Amino acid sequence: MPEQTGATTFHLGKHRDSVQAALARLDRQRFLDRFLAKDPTLWKTDDETARVVRNRMGWLDVAAMMRDQVAGILRFADQLRGDGFKHVVLLGMGGSSLCPDVLRQTFRRGRGRPLLHVLDSTDPEAIAAVDRAIDPEWTLFVVSSKSGTTIESQMLFRYYWAKSQGERFIAITDPGTPLERIARERGFRRVFLNPPDIGGRYSALSYFGMVPAACAGIDIGGLLERGDELARGLRPGLAAGACEPVALGAALAALAGAGRDKVTFVTSRSIATFGYWVEQLIAESTGKEGKGLIPIEGEELGRPSEYGKDRCFVHLRVRGSSDVSLRRRLTSLRRAGHPVIQIDLEDRLDLGAEFNRWEIATATAASLMGINPFDEPNVKESKDNSARALETFQATGSFSSPVPALDEGVRALARLIESTRKGDYIALMAYLRMDAPTVALLGKLRLKLRRRCRAATTLGFGPRFLHSTGQLHKGGPPNGVFIQITSEKALDLPIPGESFSFKTLEAAQAAGDLRSLEGRGYRVARLHLGASKKEDLERVLAAARQARHLS
Q: What angle is formed at CA 444 by the lines to CA 442 and CA 445, rounded to 5 degrees?
């Protein structure tokens, strides 16, 4: 294959032939023609997969469709500004929240536009932080859920409905959902009905991503134009190697087949949060049937000696960015034999194209790996376990598993470090408020674990990650090492109409996920922090420094 295809440069080293073989296989299958025809047999041949795929590929055309809706969305956003709204709070999870979260942290809000907040947590301290930042009287609440039944969105809606009602709420959902019914019965300002043939994690360029962005004054017309431009480049008869996103997917699948399944993202600072979204897309689409690509985002780039032979690196570079240090490190990695793929973006609006590029690439890689990228067979398991944990708490006043002392958790962590083997990845699962100091401390812990074990690390905040990497944890390769971090809460918040609080709901979600992982016999440690979280995390970090790794 050519080293460069459009904006993508492939440095594949000795893996070039295996990627070329994957591209040849796609050409023999007439992949692109069948993909554009939405042929479900590209992934599986059974009737159930065909049914799922037929109801999940509307994203291929959504950028063009949404360009026709831009004027109406902008009129709605102008009305909000005219009515004096100061804040917009998005209540959603996973595919309903991650794209808006990326966009709000990538682009400045427009002059005079409301400040966009994304609340995708049941952590009472995270909810309280949003409460402190807003005035409900001048806040628009966006209840966002494809199914209209997502428990986190439902509980957050109840909480804020008790503070502010009617015209201060809008809904984004599929037609015919319980959320649509509630929104119409209660007089929401607006209901945006998304095309129902788009899965949540493929919905970035639909109403789910574009309406919240427009409210904040972000240029959704520019994003959609770039996304549509990339989609129009998919032409019947085009060779796989000449189609950028298909070539990218072939490279990812071939590298995974060679053991390099840890897709490590490195980005220009101006688009640093893009990893939030692409992590979910890849993990939830490919992490099943004991297979999967393992996305690594937010992990500080290191020296070649810190990595095993299970990595490939993807550098998303915005032209004009001062990425000199990153480029030097990536050059060192490439010279050490690690595959590096570089994608050049003209500016930040090219994220519109990246959403489409990675959706197509992920679907392509899944086809080569024999995986249906449009289902999530293990997500319901954790939900069911969480529901059972909540029922136990309501019946008995406690959860079935006692809270471990921190010292006990630290000893379990040391044993996990000793057990880590070549090719494993370490997942930190933090049921904590996602604030800058906590992210920084857990980032230090990631680096210490990587250097100690030469293992890839991920960081997810619960319950947010349950709608992202949670599918990969349960359904993907059985080489995960899992560290759950919970804590005492400085406060709690009631949920109107329920006998349990947000603190209890979050604890039940943590307990349910822990049960899912332990039930598979996976290596898991739980660290329960006290009220002094910073000090306890420092203790954990010190213990990780001292732990012995048996390579």
A: 60
Tokens of 436: 């800058």
Residue 14 to residue 412: CA distance in whole angstroms: 39
For residue 359, give the CATH number of its domain.
Answer: 3.40.50.10490
Give the phi and the psi of residue 136 in degrees, each rounded to 5.
Answer: -55, -30
CA atoms of 50 and 55, how far apart (whole Å):
9
Enclosing domain of residue 502: 379-546
Q: Assess if residue 232 is contained within a domain.
A: no
How many folded domains does the chain comprise? 3
Query: Number of helices (H) and strands (E), helices first, in the chain?
Result: 21, 15
3 state SS of 172: strand
Tokens of residue 176, six digits: 């015919």
Of the residues 323, 346, 369, the one at which a domain ends? 369
Cα 298 to its chain centre, rounded Å, is 12
Q: CB neighbours of 83 closer than 8 A, spacing ≥ 6?
A: none
Ranges assigned E (strand) in 283-339: 294-296, 311-318
Q: Are the CB atoms for 544 and 413 separated by under 8 Å?
A: yes
* Lowest-pLDDT choice from 150-154, 379-383, 486-490: 379-383
* Angular region, 67: left φ>0, alpha ψ -120 to 50, beta rest: alpha
Report residue 159's pLDDT band, with 50, 70 and 90 as the boundaries: very high
Whether residues 203 and 74 share a domain: the answer is: yes
Is 340 found in the same domain as 444?
no
Q: Are 429 and 539 in contact (CB under 8 A)?
A: no
Is 484 in a helix, a strand, or coil? strand
Structure tokens at 442: 């857990």
> Which H or E run includes 382?
helix 379-396
- Position 234: which residue type? L
544 pLDDT exceeds 90? no
Pairing of strands 169-173, 190-193: parallel
Distance CA(456)–CA(279), nearest Å, equals: 14
Q: Tell me the average pLDDT of the chain.
A: 95
> Is the distance from CB of 62 to CB of 209 less than 8 angstroms?
no
Structure confidence at residue 1 (pLDDT): 59
In contact, 434 and 533? CB cutoff 8 Å: no
Give me the pLDDT at residue 517, please.
Answer: 96
